[in-house]
Amino acid sequence: MEMLSGSWDYAQFKAAFYQKTGLDLDCYKDRQMERRIRQLMQRERKPDFHLFYQYLADSPPAMEYFFNYLTINTSEFFRDEKVYARLKEEIFPELLKNYPESLTVWSAGCSIGAEPYTVAIILDSLKVLDRAQIIATDMDDKALLTAQKGCYDLKYVQKTPEEHIHRYFDREGEKYCLKTEIKKKVIFKRHNLLVDAPVSGCLMILCRNVFIYFKAETQDFLLERFSRVLKPGGILVIGSAEYISNPGKFGFFKRYNTIYQKKTGSL
Questions:
Q1: How far apart are CA 66 and CA 259, in angstroms?
Q2: N- to C-terminal Cα distance for the chain?
Q3: Contact 95, 101 (CB under 8 A)
Q4: Domain ranges in the chain?
Q5: Do the beta carbons of residue 177 and residue 117 sit within 8 Å?
Q6: Between the CA of residue 172 and those of 21, 115, 175, 183, what are the distances in Å?
């Protein structure tokens, strides 16, 4: 079904975009997403949603750029130091004690890779990286390309402890490039959280600063999925600005701020 021509409102744009791409913008908070899209429309001098849709539909590069634009790539190594300290000092040792064979970690919405690489650095400093599988996913191809290269400007590593900078990075001009031993331990994949099957058999899922862009019902959908693929006792880590109002509904209980654990009796 093709949408009618003429001037469109945001609802008509969302319907046409979903029909064209399969990405449901209704899952996102309307005010935030519409404001973000309108900013791009203004930059591209497409003042109407119908004109903007036609521009995207007629230009694969423009559509690819738009997909990448929709994802918010704010990331850095060791973001929220207290959270990572808790993971290193308490959570990871506990998980490894309970599941000594292997540890599968999923960084869902990994952006440019700073988060899963931070996890790899922590596990290596605990001397257990060889027992871990770290899978990092995002729907932004450009961000994934940056992640796979593993080279970052200073602003992304400013919170990284100095000893880790010396141990895990090589300086190449103005860039800080991860050593191969860390890069090879993270598997990056293109993945749409709302459509593609979740990573199974996880002991930890980090989905940080992603929920804040989704409506409540979409958050619930993701929490149900995460609970299903986490092993009993597994850990879910969300962003410091995010909150799960009823974790018990999904088989979780709150361990610490931003850290939730799946109940051992939950399957």
A1: 32
A2: 41
A3: no
A4: 10-70, 81-262
A5: no
A6: 39, 21, 5, 16
State whether residue 265 is helix, strand or coil. coil
Alpha-carbon gap, residue 264 to 230, rounded angstroms: 10
pLDDT category of residue 201 using cuts at 50, 70 and 90 = very high
Tokens 């090879």 found at: 184
What is the identity of the amino acid at 264?
Answer: T
* Two tokens, residue 50: 């119908």
Q: What is the mean pLDDT of residues 54-82?
A: 82
pLDDT higher than 50, residue 138:
yes
Closest to 176 in 3D by CA, of 189, 193, 198, 159:
159
Q: Tell me the CATH class for 81-262.
A: alpha beta
Say if residues 159 and 76 touch (Cβ distance below 8 Å): yes
Query: What proportion of the chain, given as a percentage, has pLDDT over 90?
Result: 59
The answer to whether residues 78 and 163 touch, using CB atoms and an 8 Å cutoff, is no
pLDDT band at 27 (very low <50, low <70, confident <90, very high): confident
Q: How far apart are CA 96 and CA 235, in angstroms?
A: 12
- Would residue 173 be called left, alpha or beta, if left means φ above 0 and alpha means ψ between -120 and 50 degrees? left
Q: How far is CA 6 from CA 3, 9, 13, 15, 148, in A?
A: 9, 10, 12, 15, 43
Element (H, E) at 178: strand 175-178
